[in-house]
Amino acid sequence: MSDPLSSVCIEFVVEYEESHWEPGRWKELQKVAGNQATAELFLYGDLNYQFRVYAVNAVGPGPPSEPTERLKTPPAAPDRNPENIKIHGHLPHEMDITWDPLLPTEYNGPGLEYKVSYRKLEVEDQWQEHLVMRPSFIVRNTSTFAPYEIKIQTRNSLGWGPQPKPITGYSGEDVPTTAPHNVAVEVINTTALRVSWSPVLPSTVRGHLGGYNVYWERLKSFLSPDEVLEERDSKSFSGNRTHAIVLGLEPFSEYRLTVSVFNKKGKGPKSDPVTFHTPEGVPGKVPILIASNIQDDSVLLEWGIPSVTNGILTGFLLQYHHLNETSLEVIDSFELNITSPDATQQQFWGLVRGSLFRFDLSACTRAGCGPPQAQEYRTEVVAKTVKLVRIDENRDETKHRAIMEENMFVSAKSLRLGLMLLGQPELQWNDMNQSVFMF
């Protein structure tokens, strides 16, 4: 049993076919509510129409009706003018005008043409007019980037279309003629600056303002003042602006900077150059830090000079951190300023025996110290060989002395065993800073 709602007509669709331009092709002309049985149709002139109708319900469209008899509309003047009018200025003294043409079924009669009218905005009262059949026209010998009023009107052999409304467009652009002035530089830090300028007059841009170009050239590094550098860079900043931020400069260098304005046609002349200096920066990281000749309470540190100093080296900052072996927290710290910029090693005393520690070494300039190179080391208890010495302090008493000599290693177990064979020793220190066990 069918759903009674599915038989309810939602709408009617009226289609048409015309035999002159697209014979045999049916197109939708108008939709009509399902409760209406008539429609008033808008038709173009000078066409041979036929029509058909089909119904639409909730299920979908039904089959179309049989076509009507042909209906020939009389010719008439055009009902509308072209749309989507565009103005381009490809060359400095020309203006290209294009538009979407009418469809052939919209001609309303034979002999369709377009009347192109134009005049310079707020300068000329008289319209310049040209009749064309193609949907484009080039106005020649215009002023550079001048505003014009443009309107396009259709006509055929029966008459003119409706009166069009004018639109505004510009003739072709050319490169700007003047440079920004009052260019000033404010150095923010070692690698960045703020540049400002006074904008150019709009009439000298000779086109739609695209923005400003900033050019800079690194002339020399103060670390090697005799070396000729050819390092150039630039950046574009869009829009009508009067300042910009430039990044990526090199520290401790001399630069030259200029500014120019640009439009779609190209770049204008550069401003007078401004020379400025970037200050010293902190050095790069020390490339290597190693420890050698590790003793129980001292170490020899050796390092390399940073390849990037960003200024004149004034020395190094060496920091020592005694670390907790479990939590790695800092137990104690102190630092040493090494004032020789050519130093590549330093003997470090006063380490805690058998402990974990970290050294941080940074290279320094007048601007400060750079990032540290860090290394962790562990001191070892340096064991000594046991040397038994028989000493006669008097004829009735003999004692044994064990002297531990530097730089000879034995295990703690063997050391304890040797001492046990001799009995319980008494630990003393002699004047030669040697460990002496008295028996």
Largest sheet: 5 strands, antiparallel
Tell me the overall shape: elongated
Helix coverage percent: under 10%
Unreliable stretches covering 5 or more consecutive residues: 383-439
Region (Disordered): 62-83
Domain Fibronectin type-III: 1-76, 81-174, 179-281, 282-385
Organism: Ilyodon furcidens
Protein name: Fibronectin type-III domain-containing protein
Briefly, what is this?
The chain has 439 residues and is mainly beta. The protein has five domains: 4-72, Immunoglobulin-like (Sandwich), CATH 2.60.40.10; 83-170, Immunoglobulin-like (Sandwich); 181-277, Immunoglobulins (Immunoglobulin-like, Sandwich); 289-378, Sandwich (Immunoglobulin-like); 385-438, no CATH class. It is built from two helices and 31 strands.
Task: Summarize the helices and strands and which ones pair or pack.
Layout: E1 11-18, E2 27-33, E3 48-56, E4 71-72, E5 83-88, E6 94-100, E7 113-120, E8 128-132, E9 136-140, E10 147-156, E11 159-160, E12 167-170, E13 181-187, E14 193-198, H1 202-205, E15 209-221, E16 231-238, E17 243-246, E18 253-263, E19 274-277, E20 289-292, E21 298-303, E22 315-323, E23 330-338, E24 345-349, E25 356-365, E26 368-369, E27 373-378, E28 385-394, E29 397-405, H2 412-422, E30 426-429, E31 435-438
Antiparallel strand pairs: 1-2, 1-3, 3-4, 5-6, 6-9, 7-8, 7-10, 10-11, 10-12, 13-14, 14-17, 15-16, 15-18, 18-19, 20-21, 21-24, 22-23, 22-25, 25-26, 25-27, 28-29, 29-31, 30-31
Protein name: Fibronectin type-III domain-containing protein
Region (Disordered): 62-83
InterPro entries: FN3_dom (IPR003961), FN3_sf (IPR036116), Ig-like_fold (IPR013783)
